Amino acid sequence: MNQALDTLIDMPERDAEGYLIEPDDWNEAVATQLAQEENITLNDDHWDAIRFMRDYYQEHQIAADARFVIKHLGERMGKEAHKKLFELFPYGYVKQACKIAGMRRPRAWSTG
Q1: β-bridge partners, 20
Q2: Other CB atoms within 10 Å distance of the CB of residue 21
Q3: What's the CATH number where 91 sits?
Q4: Is residue 51 part of a domain?
Q5: Is residue 85 part of a domain?
Q6: Tell me: the pLDDT tens digits for 71-106?
């Protein structure tokens, strides 16, 4: 974690792995900073997945399982959705998508 950057953009409190402690502290500026730390430049497809994840969290108070995000992306992308999710977040759904979307680290999940 880069403390200087955290101070500049007033990043919310994060755990030792860089996940937000409180998902409600998330906003799009935070997402952009978290993505930059993961060497990801967010595009429309990233935002589509992230916004779906945020909406799911707001409704259910838990992070969406990757299969729900893939189903959501599949409505627009068809069979390529599974592959696309891992192109968007190459180091894994939990490691990158959940972190950038402001979720707490899902403890019981694998990185896929």
Answers
A1: 14
A2: 10
A3: 1.10.10.370
A4: yes
A5: yes
A6: 999 999 999 999 999 999 999 998 999 999 999 987
Q: Is residue 54 part of a domain?
A: yes
The Cβ-side half-sphere exposure at 29, using a 13 Å CA radius, reads 8
pLDDT of the residue at 7 = 43
Mean pLDDT taken over the chain: 89
Q: CA quadruple 33, 37, 38, 40: dihedral positive or negative?
A: positive
Whether the pLDDT of residue 29 is over 80: the answer is yes
**110 belongs to a structural domain:** no
Give the span between the Cα atoms of 56 and 64, in whole angstroms.
6
Q: Computed from CA positions of residues 108, 89, 42, 39, in that sequence, does the dihedral angle turn out positive or negative? A: positive
pTM of the model: 0.86
- Give the Cα separation of 31 and 63 in Å (integer): 15
Q: Are 97 and 50 in contact (CB under 8 A)?
A: yes
